[in-house]
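Q: For a teaching handout, I want to show students what a protein-ligand complex looks like in token form. Below are the inputs, and the small molecule is adenosine-5'-triphosphate. Please produce the holo structure.
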Amino acid sequence: MLEINDLSVSYGAIRAVRGVSFSVGKGELVSLLGANGAGKSSTIKCIAGALKAAGGSIALEGKDITTANPEQVIRAGLATVPETRDVFPDLTVAENLMLGAYIHRRDQAGNRQNLEKLHTLFPRLAERSNQPAGTLSGGEQQMLVIARALMARPRVLLLDEPSLGLAPAIVERIFEMIETLKKSGLTILLVEQNVNQALSVADRAYVMRLGAIATSGTAEEIRATSDLSAHYLGG
Ligand SMILES: Nc1ncnc2c1ncn2[C@@H]1O[C@H](COP(=O)(O)OP(=O)(O)OP(=O)(O)O)[C@@H](O)[C@H]1O
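A: Here is the structure, written as tokens, with adenosine-5'-triphosphate included.
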């Protein structure tokens, strides 16, 4: 579904991502793990079209999207939920969701149908439809940005640190939703600092360290890797 080959990302002289390769199969949930500064967000931003690749390639369902801009990436079938979790605070929950459906704006019937489906998955958002998004709690805003990305009807979803700064009980609920999305057949790439939570839902994982893939395997293999903490602690 998603094939990253020898990807590099630079900020001027800083090489944040150095020849990273990985893949995500259809219906798979793959997690990208690693300590602060390992290069996870830079990788995600590059896939999403928000950063230019300095080298390598990105293919979605066999189609090259390496130089695609963010709108072209979404149109190709890949939506991203950035870690910044930014909602439009003065717009209502419903208006925020409709902005996610921008590329399908001529298909109002399809959008209504998709919105109904998402309201079943996120009942809290249905209850808060007419409330300004800025008044939602952190967990509700996270649900809103995930639902807004799903309004684009992607086949691949990129989630950047969905648990960041949320209380443990809310994190549990966010991960339950991620599992539900996976069961619906969605292909997911999940960037996380919360290793245990990520491995509890992931089929496979890649661990990044200093801009490169340090280790990879099934969730069980990664869990059993004795040097996982070393990757996190920089050992
Ligand atoms: N806009 C930028 N300008 C310069 N350097 C940057 C910029 N963004 C990131 N970097 C650097 O690139 C490297 C990788 O950062 P990145 O945010 O991709 O890591 P990360 O694994 O996502 O970390 P975190 O979990 O803290 O978000 C870091 O050394 C960081 O300082």
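A: Two things your students might notice: The CA atoms of residues 155 and 200 lie 22 Å apart. Residues 2-233 form a domain with the Rossmann fold fold (CATH 3.40.50.300).
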